[in-house]
Amino acid sequence: MHRIARKPWQTGMVTSNTPPAQGTRLDPWFGAYAQRAHNMRASEVRALFAVASRPEVVSLAGGMPNLADLPLDDIAELTAKVIATEGMTALQYGSGQGRPLLREKIVDVMRLEAIDAHPDDIVVTTGSQQALDLVTRIFIDPGDVIIAEAPSYVGALSVFRSYEAEVEHVHMDAAGLVPSELEESIVRLKEQGKRVKFLYTIPNFHNPAGVTLSLERRHQVVDICKRHGVVVIEDNPYGLLGFDGEPLPAMRSFEEEGVVYLGSFSKTFAPGYRVGWVVAPHAVREKLVLAQESAILCPSHASQMAIEAYLSNHDWKRQIEEFRSMYKSRRDAMIAALSEFLPDATWNVPEGGFYVWVKLPPGLDSKTMLPRAVTGRVAYTPGTAFFYDGTGADHLRLSFCYPDEATIREGVRRLAAVISAERES
Ligand code: PMP
């Protein structure tokens, strides 16, 4: 005998005050979700991946690093050796804080940005994306305010949304986040009775804005946040990918108590191992380790040991040099193509990283234009992805990290054709 399946709200599992909302009857569990699940949505970047990965589309949308120059044979050998000689450890559970040897190596990496940390200051995470989740988890109650640049990293905004934070955007100019606006915002929000918990900032080669916070402003930002009791979350996955000159000192290099620093191997080595880290003052670190243990018990031992082997046996600094010069010539190709094909738009010239932030000619909307761009065989990320309230349609982000120079030029040429059709319609 067949029984008719009952929907959860017919079985009493879901209370009557949480009826399925309009348009959700296809999901029988809709009424059961926590509010934070309702706040989660597919990012515009993710929705794009499906279309942008079609071979006929030039994708200037995603932020995937170009791994073509990595010495895969060497890496395969190193990794195989880790399993062959230390497999019982590599495949075992480990410390929630991460392996001591890897933390020692991370100290060396951070020295390049003037950070003088101790291995004990570090918590290894599953990419810096997980670090963002842990940091938000330990600091944010629903309704708490996070200050972030306008625009800001789409993946951070999605974490903030899932923890029901409010986000206050602060403007940037060519020298990065504007300190006077930061202070005004903190003061105003506090007067309104809001709890301002942290500033989330990407000081180097910003995603998506491409700008870098000047040294003078780094000091001002830290000083303002200290005076107002606001933690600085310094998210720095691109800091070693500057095209000219030496990296600027990280804020963590001159402020230990007030800064929580996030690092990653995703852009300077490879994202596939999913290894990042946090540097935090003692008490914060203890909370992060507890949060980490409850989320994942420990970061992947095998990944950590593969990265240890890479850093110990490979000239990783030279590899970063190679990445820098490869991305620099891609940046140059993109800027040249923009000048050639899109003279009516405006953009900044990033001094490192992966992204150019383009302001469209007046009257255009990057979000509504996107389907037509994909039809025109080019993809980008609409500016709306990078603002908490979905504004920013007058901008778009172009990534120059993954396609080669000729493909970048063709992508910008196609984009210009889409824009000119848009203006004529
Ligand atoms: N922060 C920023 C600013 C990023 O651009 C990214 C990746 N695009 C991340 C964090 C997350 O990187 P991962 O988890 O790979 O370390």
UniProtKB/TrEMBL annotation:
Residues 1-22 are annotated as: Disordered. This is PLP-dependent aminotransferase family protein. The keyword Transferase applies. It comes from Populibacterium corticicola. Its cofactor is pyridoxal 5'-phosphate. Residues 60-415 form the Aminotransferase class I/classII large domain. Keywords: Aminotransferase, Pyridoxal phosphate, Transferase. One of its GO terms (molecular function) is transaminase activity. Residues 12-21 have a biased composition (Polar residues). It holds the Pfam family Aminotran_1_2.
